[in-house]
Amino acid sequence: MAEDLWTDVARTYARSFAGLCAGAIPEILADLPSRARLLDVGCGTGALVAAAREAGLDAIGIDPDPEMAALAGSLVGGLPDLPFADDGFEVVTASFVLNHVDHPRAGARELARVAAPGGVVRATIWGRTPPPQAVMWGGLLDEVGAVRPPSPRLPEDRDFDRSPDGLAGILTEAGLAVTQAGTRSWRWHVAPDDLWAGLTSIGNFGVTWRAQSEDVHARLRTAYDDLGEPWRDGDLFAFDVECVSVEARVPRG
């Protein structure tokens, strides 16, 4: 279910929300051992892998969507069944992945499986608080009287709390030792046409867009084009965003 929302949207994602997720890359790659072998799970457009290679790491990526994998020049595959042997990577990253898979705990166990003893697993997710771009979009939907279809959700027994403690909890359940759990903030700038492309096609945004009539589509676009402060920074939209970030290590022995 969750993965289906990200299928066949690679190029639109690259021009829209990929820039949002890229804001977490510096922290994800900070202070890693040089020349370490790194696997980025759910690599998307490959931005993290490219940055890791520039930093001197031996990095590869994998993504379940063939279009996304082709765009990134990565392998095709995803959680919870990665095509790698146990203990193969000194660093495993999952940037905004565990909040989008159908089985988060199984996904966490797979991250732990492919990480070497003593290795590092770093994961980010979006927290439970609606991000500012969603708040902006929700205001526009209310303004034009749009319908609100139910957002796809995981069954309660598979879901987890979208918080530092919640993410740390499923990594701990996977046998990892959590060393850091908190949040990271940054400002995301995006061109209006690029954000519009994402809002009308990707994830739950796309689900909502496809539920509207042509008339509502037109009114949404007009209201969107009229947006000003506090959402604008010159010709760009600007959003102060925050994610959950957790680091864990694989116990030795």
From TrEMBL:
It comes from the Bacteria. GO terms for biological process: methylation. Keywords: Methyltransferase, Transferase. Signal peptide: none annotated. SUPFAM superfamilies: S-adenosyl-L-methionine-dependent methyltransferases. Pfam families: Methyltransf_23. GO terms for molecular function: methyltransferase activity. The keyword Transferase applies. This is Methyltransferase domain-containing protein. It comes from Nocardioides baculatus.
